[in-house]
UniProtKB/TrEMBL annotation:
Family (UniProt): In the N-terminal section; belongs to the aspartokinase family.
Domain ACT, first and last residues per copy: 338-410, 419-495
Entry protein name: ACT domain-containing protein
SUPFAM superfamilies listed in its UniProt record: ACT-like, Carbamate kinase-like, Glyceraldehyde-3-phosphate dehydrogenase-like, C-terminal domain, NAD(P)-binding Rossmann-fold domains
Keywords in alphabetical order: Amino-acid biosynthesis, ATP-binding, Kinase, Lysine biosynthesis, Metal-binding, Methionine biosynthesis, Multifunctional enzyme, NAD, NADP, Nucleotide-binding, Oxidoreductase, Sodium, Threonine biosynthesis, Transferase
Organism: Gemmatimonas phototrophica
The protein's assembly and partners: Homotetramer.
Cofactor(s) listed: a metal cation
Involved pathway(s): Amino-acid biosynthesis; L-threonine biosynthesis; L-threonine from L-aspartate: step 3/5; Amino-acid biosynthesis; L-methionine biosynthesis via de novo pathway; L-homoserine from L-aspartate: step 3/3; Amino-acid biosynthesis; L-methionine biosynthesis via de novo pathway; L-homoserine from L-aspartate: step 1/3; Amino-acid biosynthesis; L-threonine biosynthesis; L-threonine from L-aspartate: step 1/5
Catalytic activity: L-homoserine + NADP(+) = L-aspartate 4-semialdehyde + NADPH + H(+); L-aspartate + ATP = 4-phospho-L-aspartate + ADP; L-homoserine + NAD(+) = L-aspartate 4-semialdehyde + NADH + H(+)
Cleaved signal peptide residues: none
Function per UniProt: Bifunctional aspartate kinase and homoserine dehydrogenase that catalyzes the first and the third steps toward the synthesis of lysine, methionine and threonine from aspartate.
Length: 846
């Protein structure tokens, strides 16, 4: 009868719990344990269940103690126990700050080591080490490290509690290699851990250990702490399970074999399980079994760099451009082939072959049988090949004596290479690409196996060819691009929008209307809260939803699948995916240089509507341009001056044809143009500015326009083009914002606009009486840059501008007497988004 869920046995709300697992290699000494404690305490509010392995090397030391005890060497036992005791004491001393806490912990440790010693001496007396006793001894490593972590957490003022694993993880009771009884464990875990989590207590559980029959303690097999973590994550319906490891994540292959191996950002559970089975040592092969029918993502993350995202293992299927996502090489294999005419049509040969190997305790890593049924080949670890031959010869002694079987052929010095990826299913040509790559690098394929799931293709090759084989297959499937970098594809351009404000949303609206063979694909959106990303491209539905969402003033991170991050973090995380001709489009009005640098470093191109990056101090801008050059990236910024008007384009055409620009003058503020036109018609300042804001002409803070800073930035960008070596502070700027309004919060400024109506009416009145027209004007030469309000006569070319019209006048060597004039609307979402789109299209493949 199913157990009824009581209040306390219900799992805590889905997505509330994190399960962390710290591997032994991470927990090496006191500073590592302190670091782990810092990681456990970092999520706030913390509902973290922690699983720990034994301190690095302790499991091996305990196994050695068990062996010495079995042969009666109590001296060796004592030395090893004392060494372990000293090591654990040193960690205790290093993680606790008060004498009292240290004394108490050392006492606990001493009790545990005394018991260990007594037990080992008992084994030595009897000279008998049962599997049960061995498990009991070896489990001590995880138990001790859990005690240390609990003490460390308590020492940091956290509420933490040691929970005995044998009481939580119910198993089939197989000593040395037990497997959890998932249903039973689910119930116990919820009953025991849920109340602790509700009380905000951090449970710490020894990994690798479970409970067997009659209260026996069992172990889950080498690396079994991963399994403990996934079992707990499953039972608690955790929001995620994080395996903190001494590797950066799951790699496309072994980086020692292939230096260009990359971290795979995301793997499907089936792919990860396949890789674990085929030799990717990072993950315990059985660790993913508990998650087969339940969607809890597992993250393999680097302990040394907790900010790095590592590899996500989940039910998602991303990176679909990669039919193969990783490859594994297992060396030290032997290929055993059973051959003979007597196998034809005789049922049971395969079954007897595998039964013989199973009885000999030999694990088979690959099987292949030709359809002629003339032979069966299989791979076994080379060191077991003699045993395998003997076991098979014994099983088939009769067939061998009758010559129905020709014999057992055993080839040692072999390796298996397996390529793994969900995208292989139904994609023709993957095997042929793999075989062609191998043949082109001179690698002979000895045997081939492919499962009907098409999730992997494995080949057997000579071990001496392993490196060449891995490199050629890795190259063939472009796996060096999977963790980031630009893939030069002819039919894609991947765009990430930094900023989803007025301009960003308008750009998203007009993008589908692009008349180009290759339409840019929006793969990412970033705002102040975080980012939304899909390497395959956000769907039109997602983009529409994002536009509506942002229009309503909400944060991107309140949308499904969005991730909380700062802009530089978001770019860095997105840049780990291989994108086609990636472009970062900066549509913020913020200091975004750190994010832009990250993008350039990943070979992305940049499009800017934001003027701040290029009006930063000269040294920073020069460094940015040098970085772009180094990475072969382009920085396009047409809309930083004159919105959609072809200002940068015209400048480039002038200089490309050998002209020299001597000075630039004009009006480059749509907001001020509109404001002065409206005030000139007699409208109050507050109304006119209100309209400018509503129509999307102003900067997010309209004082950037009114203070002249927006024009100053544009002037500096233009002036630097023609040789000005100064900074923004060297630009002479006339501010139109009265002192009292300059530093108040923007919301307050917007609510007090009417207080400036009279000042603006007076200013306009004076100009009208003088028969003049007010214009905010810039003048930039290689030696001086000035922006400010001018009262120009009605005959002046600038006097004729209306509304948001900008005018940019280039005086050049060629256009000296009659300068080149560009006039037109210079603000507003429609023209600006079109200008940004034009820049993006310049980067699009033709
Ligand atoms: N309006 C115009 O006519 C023209 C504008 N431009 C330039 O276009 C840019 C965008 O203007 P507009 O769309 O009106 O501005 P908005 O204020 O409407 O939008 C800005 C967007 O940028 C995001 N953002 C701001 N700072 C950060 C940050 N540090 N990290 C991540 N995201 C950030 C905001 O996020 P959140 O939503 O979370 O606040 C918002 O989505 C400005 O630089 C402007 O000068 C250029 C030419 C013409
Ligand atoms: N706020 C700016 C927008 C364009 O750069 C302006 O009004 O010109």
């Amino acid at each position: 009868m199913p157990a009824r869920a009581t209040k306390s046995s219900r799992p805590v709300k889905k997505s509330a719990v994190d399960v962390f697992k710290f591997g032994g290699a991470s927990l090496a000494d006191a500073s590592a344990v302190r670091h782990a404690i810092g990681i456990i305490l970092s999520p706030r509010p913390s509902r973290t269940v922690t699983v720990v392995s034994a301190l690095a090397g302790v499991t091996d030391a305990l196994l050695a103690i068990a062996e010495w005890a079995r042969v009666g060497d109590t001296k060796a036992v004592d030395v090893a126990v004392d060494r372990l005791r000293a090591r654990h004491r040193a960690v205790a001393e290093g993680i606790l700050t008060t004498q009292r806490a240290r004394k108490a912990l050392v006492k606990e440790l001493d009790t545990a080591f005394d018991e260990l010693r007594t037990l080992a001496h008992g084994v030595a007396t009897l000279r008998e080490l049962t599997p049960r006793t061995r498990d009991y001894l070896v489990a001590r490593g995880e138990q001790l490290s859990a005690q240390l972590v609990v003490a460390g957490l308590l020492g940091r003022g956290a509420k933490a509690q040691y929970v005995e694993a044998a009481e939580l993880i119910r198993t089939d009771g197989v000593f040395g290699n037990a497997f959890p009884d998932l249903a039973a464990t689910d119930r116990v875990v919820r009953e025991r851990l849920t109340p602790l989590l509700r009380r905000k207590v951090l449970p710490v559980i020894p990994g690798f250990v479970g409970g067997g029959a009659e209260g026996a303690l069992v172990t889950l097999g080498r690396g079994g702490s991963d399994l403990t973590a996934t079992v707990l994550g499953r039972s608690l319906k955790a929001q995620r399970i994080t395996l903190w490891k001494d590797v950066p994540g799951l790699m496309t292959t072994d980086p020692r074999l292939v230096p260009s191996a990359r971290i795979v950002p995301q793997l499907n559970v089936r792919e990860a399980a396949e890789l674990a089975y085929y030799g990717a040592k990072v993950l315990h092969p059985r660790a993913l079994i508990p998650l087969a029918h339940i969607s809890v993502p597992v993250f393999v993350r680097p302990f040394a760099d907790p900010g790095a995202p590592g590899t996500e293992i989940s039910t998602r299927h991303t990176l679909q451009r990669y039919p193969v996502k990783a490859l594994s090489i297992v060396r030290g294999q032997a290929l055993v082939t059973v051959t003979g005419n007597g196998m034809l049509g005789v049922p049971g040969i395969a079954a007897r072959t595998f039964a013989a190997l199973q009885q000999a305790g030999i694990s088979v890593t690959l099987i292949t049988q030709a359809s002629s049924e003339h032979s069966i080949s299989l791979c076994v670890p080379a060191e077991r090949s003699a045993h395998a031959r003997a076991a098979l010869e014994q099983t088939f002694a009769l067939e061998l004596s009758r010559r129905e079987l020709e014999g057992m052929d055993v080839k040692t010095g072999m390796a298996t290479l397996a390529v793994v990826g969900l995208g292989m299913a139904g994609s023709p040509g993957i095997a042929s690409r793999m075989f062609t790559a191998l043949s082109q690098s001179g690698v002979n394929i000895v045997a081939i196996a492919q499962g009907s799931s098409e999730l992997n293709i494995s080949v057997v090759i000579a071990e001496r060819d392993a490196e060449a084989a891995a490199r050629s297959v890795h190259d063939e499937f472009q796996l060096d691009k999977i963790g980031g970098g630009g893939v030069r594809s002819d039919d894609r351009l991947d765009v990430v929008l930094l900023g989803v404000g007025q301009i960003g949303r308008e750009l998203l609206r007009i993008l589908p209307r692009t008349r180009r063979r290759v339409k840019p694909t929006i793969v990412g959106l970033i705002d102040r809260s975080g980012y939304l990303f899909d390497p395959e491209g956000l769907s039109p539905k997602q983009l529409l939803a994002a536009v509506a969402h942002k229009e309503s003033g909400a944060a991107l991170t309140s949308m499904p699948n969005a991730i909380r991050a700062s802009a530089p973090e978001a770019v860095a995380q997105i840049a780990r995916h291989a994108l086609s001709r990636p472009v970062l489009v900066d549509l913020t009005a913020d200091e975004t240089l750190p994010a832009i640098r990250k993008a350039l470093a990943a070979d992305w191109d940049i499009v800017l509507a934001n003027k701040k990056p290029l009006s930063a101090p000269r040294g920073e801008v020069q460094a940015l341009q040098a970085l772009a050059k180094q990475h072969g990236a382009r920085i396009l910024h047409e809309t930083t001056v004159g919105a959609g008007l072809p200002v940068m384009d015209s400048y480039a055409k002038l200089v490309e044809t050998g002209d020299k620009v001597l000075r630039v003058e004009g009006c480059t503020s749509g907001t001020l143009g509109f404001l002065l036109t409206e005030i000139g018609k007699g409208r109050p300042f507050s109304e006119a500015l209100g309209d400018a804001m509503r129509l999307g002409y102003t900067e997010p803070d309209p004082r950037d326009d009114l203070s002249g800073m927006d024009v100053a930035r544009k002037a500096l960008i233009l002036a630097r083009l023609i040789g000005f070596t100064g900074d923004l502070t060297d630009v002479t700027v006339e501010s139109l914002v009265p002192e009292a309004f300059r530093s108040m919060p923007v919301a307050k400024f917007k609510s007090t606009l009417t207080q400036q109506d009279k000042m603006w009416a007076d200013r306009q009145g004076t100009a009208t009486r003088q028969g003049r027209v007010l214009r905010y004007v810039l003048r930039a030469t290689p030696t001086a840059v000035k922006v400010g309000l001018q009262a120009v006569p009605p005959s002046h070319p600038l006097a004729g501008l209306r509304g948001t019209d900008n005018q940019i006048v280039f005086t050049t060597m060629r256009y000296r007497e009659h300068p080149l004039v560009i006039t037109g609307p210079g603000a507003g979402p429609a023209v600006t988004a079109a200008g940004v789109l034009n820049d993006i299209l310049q980067l699009t493949p033709a």
